[in-house]
Amino acid sequence: MMNRHLNALGLLGVCVVLMVAFFYQFALHSLPCTLCNLIRAGLIALGLGFLFNLRLGIKNKHYSFAIVGALLAGGVSLRHMLLHIVPGDPGYAETVFGIHMYTWSAIASVAAIVYIAGLMLLPESRSVARMPLISKGIAGLFVAVIAVNLVSIVIEGGFNQDLTDPQDYYLLR
User: Fold this and answer.
1) Can you say whether the dihedral through the CA atoms of 39, 43, 48, 49 is positive or negative?
2) pTM to 2 decimal places
């Protein structure tokens, strides 16, 4: 049972990270670039691993899926960091506590992998028990975050648009 709570906590953490990104996108008008959207895709894959564990039972293959998502998010984050590592480059978009969002994503990806490694040391659960109400709420929040992300990407870029340095929402012009 503790495994389920820890997976729900991991899923909630992914939701919080994505909602902070949405806050910067919608409240501060800091539109995500293509690499930022790929980082979000990796975080969504990470969250899906936790969601699979909540819904289908605790299995190491679900943790492996989450690790692949964290590696994707972390790899794209590192690529984004390397693009702005030259002297005098201010980086892309706003910062949080002086650190760019893509750098935070790399840090969060490493933290997620360490967290998942700890969870994998706990025994697997063969039974698929009913999800507690709080876990259902977190799962619903995660699905809503995925839907908002998908809609925002389509509105921001339209179809076949380059999002290298987005200035406004393409479909709202």
Assistant:
1) positive
2) 0.91
Q: How far apart are CA 146 and CA 59, in angstroms?
A: 23
- Span 85-114, average pLDDT: 90
Q: Sign of torsion, CA 129 130 135 140? A: positive
CB contact at 8 A, 152 and 165? no
CB atoms within 10 A of CB 97: 5
- Helices marked H in 27-167: 34-56, 60-83, 101-120, 133-157
Q: How do residues 15-27 score in pLDDT, each as one tens digit? A: 999 999 999 999 9
The Cα–Cα gap between 77 and 71 comes to 10
Alpha carbon 105 to chain centroid distance?
A: 8
For 133, half-sphere exposure in the C-beta direction (CA atoms, 13 angstrom radius) is 0
